[in-house]
Amino acid sequence: MMLCFLSIALSPRSRAVVLSLLACSLLASCGSVPKPIRNLGKTDIDFVMDVHTRQQKEMMIRLTRKLYVRNPSQLDKNPEMTIDRRIEQIFGSPDETELPSLIFDELNGMTSIDAILLSFDETFEGDRVFAAAVGLAEMLRRSYNHQQEFFILDSLDEQALYNSARNLEVFVWRLYHRRDSNGELFLLSNRLSETDFDISFDRLLAKMATVQDMMALIVADKTDRGITKVVHGVAQFVFVPIP
């Protein structure tokens, strides 16, 4: 019925465009379609989005592992857990195409920015690394519409991408400055001493923010929409909502 309507109401060229878009939509919704065929429904920007999404996931996994290595006491709060099991909880197994739900009872159902804040809450007695990693991963996923692959019909929100980059900067500030009532940092990161100088957390988190900023600019250019910038002083302390 739909094809009959198209053949009557549209010119041959318009029919070809509409049918191509319909095909792309079907390809995007079917993960079992071979990759070479799925790629027919992609633009150059879609391929860029795919690459950046994969890069961001890989960097999040590295960050999670580094935080656990630096803060082993957090993992000890749940004796049944290992770093690899935590990573699988958050990011799934390597061959999974569906994104796992990032809502966990041990975090009281909190996720995204709320879970990040929980990791710096002195009353929270659970795994702070897990809370921070779940929060950051969910926040980034929301900026990508919870997608791992993109096609012609897909569109991202440049403001969400930009805001998530600023939130990464806020997380860095809190990571380095937030302390408990005893004056101890909630989470350890860089090592700065006379004998040990390690700023690898700085480099990794800066790369993650840069990826989000690059994607925000690409999407803004594609959609011809502007980005509302966040005042720098405020951005140091307050997380920005993800649209």
Explain what this protein looks like in three dimensions.
By secondary structure, the chain is mainly α. It has eleven helices and two strands, in the order H-H-H-H-H-H-H-H-H-E-E-H-H. It has helices at 2-9, 12-28, 35-38, 44-70, 72-75, 83-91, 112-119, 128-143, 158-177, 200-223, 232-235; strands at 191-192, 197-198. Strands 1-2 form a two-stranded antiparallel sheet. Strand 1 and strand 2 (197-198) form a beta hairpin. Helix 9 packs antiparallel against helix 10. 30% of the residues are buried.
List the helices and strands and how they pair.
Elements: H1 2-9, H2 12-28, H3 35-38, H4 44-70, H5 72-75, H6 83-91, H7 112-119, H8 128-143, H9 158-177, E1 191-192, E2 197-198, H10 200-223, H11 232-235
Antiparallel strand pairs: 1-2
Signal peptide: 1-16
Keywords: Signal
Organism: Vibrio amylolyticus
Q: Spell the H/E element sequence.
A: HHHHHHHHHEEHH
**Total number of domains:** 2
Major β-sheet, in short?
Answer: 2 strands, antiparallel
Given helix and strand content, the structural type is mainly alpha
The total count of strands amounts to 2
Radius of gyration: 21 Å
Q: Give the low-confidence spans.
A: 1-8, 13-31
Helix content: 55-70%
Keywords: Signal
Protein name: Lipoprotein
Organism: Vibrio amylolyticus
Signal peptide: 1-16
Brief descriptors of the model:
mainly alpha; disordered N terminus; Lipoprotein; two-stranded antiparallel ribbon; 2 domains; signal; 243 residues
